[in-house]
Amino acid sequence: MPELPEVETVRRGLEPVLTGHVITEALVNRPNLRWPFPERMAERLTGQRILALRRRSKYILADLDSGESLLIHLGMSGRMLVSGAMLGEFHHDHPAPAKHDHVVLTMDSGARVTFNDARRFGSMDLMPTDHAAEHPLLAGLGPEPLGNAFHEAYLIGRLKGRNTPIKAALLDQRVVAGLGNIYVCEALFRAGIDPTRKAGALSAETVASLVPIIRQVLGEAIEAGGSSLRDYRQADGELGYFQHTFRVYDREGQPCVTPGCPGIVGRIVQSGRSTFHCPICQR
DNA sequence: ATGTAGGCCTGGAAGC
DNA sequence: TGCTTCCAGGCCTACA
């Protein structure tokens, strides 16, 4: 579900509630999400101060003063609900427990963070902070798309010789970490690249053009998340999704937004996932 | 090694 | 209205 910009928005929304605060109670309502929770998770969280809240790809990491870090993945349908805290100018009372509330953290401030995930594709784990990068879910990840290690020469080298469609290559978290179906569709549209073209067959110039475009697409979405964060806080304290205007994603049958382009946005299926594209603009 | 389908779960929307 | 089918923004595993 949430891709990098949404996860970053959730991280920013949780930061004032979690960072520097102590978890006074951890309620764990089931033994697992996608995978089993770590042994004694509730005990290992209770009493811990959260020193920092970080993001790697689509994962959130909460560093605890025990020397462990809590890894949080929202999967496709994971949401965080903040209650009992002043959010902007509004105070949110604690809601009644809801279906799919799997983990509830109560903080020393009285604030509460509830992890709700209907589809249970999300996950949580605990590991030593100084070995977090070696966690199986993080070890194979490629560079952060907004970081310095993601640059033109890197992407050109990484896609060289790859026979897979560029759409699939950009969804490969080992190539670049944090892109999902939406932002890959949007980036390929802005770059004017046909999503079915083989990654290795693209010119170096074309591949290079993707780097600033990917940065731009994600950056704009994070900005939009920032403004919707205020709205969400004012509305209901829920963090997870935000409204954003897409140029091709989920616009099947609608006209291409490129001025003067007669194209109609199409939907094709690539490795089981929907790809939205303009058959005229994207070559 | 590389590329692609299948499966995990539930809920909402669309179709009949 | 109610039942059925399809679809979903992720990611791992198994297989060609």
General description of the model:
There is one protein chain. This protein has seven helices and 13 strands. The protein has helices at 4-18, 41-45, 136-139, 152-159, 166-171, 181-191, 204-235; strands at residues 23-28, 50-56, 59-64, 68-73, 78-83, 86-87, 90-91, 101-107, 112-117, 123-128, 238-239, 266-270, 273-277. Strands 1-8-9-5-11 form a five-stranded antiparallel β-sheet. Strands 2-3-4-10 form a four-stranded antiparallel β-sheet. β6 (86-87) and β7 (90-91) form a beta hairpin. The protein binds a DNA duplex (16 and 16 nucleotides) through residues 1-3, 6, 34, 58, 73-77, 100, 117-122, 137, 162-164, 168, 171, 173, 180-183, 241, 249-250, 270-274. Keywords: DNA damage, DNA repair, DNA-binding, Glycosidase, Hydrolase, Lyase, Metal-binding, Multifunctional enzyme, Zinc, Zinc-finger. InterPro entries: FPG_cat (IPR012319), FPG_Glyclase (IPR020629), FPG_N (IPR035937), H2TH_FPG (IPR015886), Ribosomal_uS13-like_H2TH (IPR010979), Znf_DNA_glyclase/AP_lyase (IPR000214).
